[in-house]
Amino acid sequence: MSSEFHRPVLVREVCEALAPALVRAEAPVFVDATCGGAGHTLAVLAAYAEARPAGPKLRAIALDRDEEALAEARRKLPAEVELVHSSFGHLPEVLDAAGVTAATAILADLGVSSHQLDTGARGFSFQVDAPLDMRMDPSRGVPASQLLADISAGELTQVLRDYGEEPDAARIAAAIVAVRPKTTGVLAKVVAAAMSAPQRRKLGLRIHPATRTFQALRIRVNDELGELDRLLAAAPERLQVGGRLGIITFHSLEDRATKQRFAALTRAEQPPAGLPIAARDLPRPRFVVPGGYRQGAAPGDAEVAANPRSRSSRLRVLERALP
Ligand SMILES: C[S@@+](CC[C@H](N)C(=O)[O-])C[C@H]1O[C@@H](n2cnc3c(N)ncnc32)[C@H](O)[C@@H]1O
């Protein structure tokens, strides 16, 4: 296991994106929806203290569905930061329980932490043979081994296609249901043996043949896209006017969902055909993507060199517009 819990990505970009909201709020509230090892929370707290040394106190609420992450965060964060064991799909309930109607800044850094991947016993990795679990919150839901014990080849093919974009989905799914693996090592071997020679060649020596299958199962076991949809539905409505939502995505499925939701929220209404209404007389969209964030923010070369995991990351930002 690596000694570092998790190295956060796009830290400067996150602070720069959320600062304009935090520095102008009268009663600023920051919600880190994916606290992990608290790297982003600590950075945002420090950036706020520097930007507004005499400003109002920043209330910080950090949630994670993984209790190991919360234990790590508790060690690192000031006692007044409120930690909540919850998935961000329940953001409205978390905010209601905290008595927060609307937050000034909300951040979600999607996916798994290095700690989760590197802790072999959690069953996320094909590097170590361990029970096939893959739950970010092991106190809830069904482990990957149980999913593979019950799933049909057809449904598994769909999971591998939809969440792993796996070209060999059907043959890999057939091989998996023939064995119904219970450990990461067996699953990795079954996938490697089932993959067609052209696909193996395409992946080369550096990418393990089971990479896409592991990603697909992890997304399914943790209902990651369902969670993201619930967050994208609720979080914009729980922003203060001028408040900002930042989402860090790591793969095309997450990025597409986020981009499409932000586009729908920021689209200006068109005048109804044939009616003499000028576009300027229609209500303005309640949300905007702030200038400079149309394509999101991506890591620079230095960050990618220092932290290869950041390569595919992208920060997308949405702001609740002034009425
Ligand atoms: C990429 S890490 C975040 C790292 C964090 N930003 C940091 O600076 O250390 C993702 C974290 O989000 C948590 N997580 C993923 N999906 C979640 C969800 N739906 N609800 C709450 N936490 C979630 C994971 O358990 C993990 O700890």
UniProtKB/TrEMBL annotation:
Assigned EC number: 2.1.1.199
Residue numbers binding S-adenosyl-L-methionine? A38, G39, H40, D64, F88, D109, Q116
UniProt keywords (A-Z) are: Cytoplasm, Methyltransferase, rRNA processing, S-adenosyl-L-methionine, Transferase
Q: What class of enzyme is it?
A: transferase
The record, for HAMAP family, names: 16SrRNA_methyltr_H
- Biological role stated in the UniProt entry: Specifically methylates the N4 position of cytidine in position 1402 (C1402) of 16S rRNA.
Write the protein's name: Ribosomal RNA small subunit methyltransferase H
Q: Which organism is it from?
A: Nannocystis exedens
Query: What is the primary gene name for this protein?
Result: rsmH
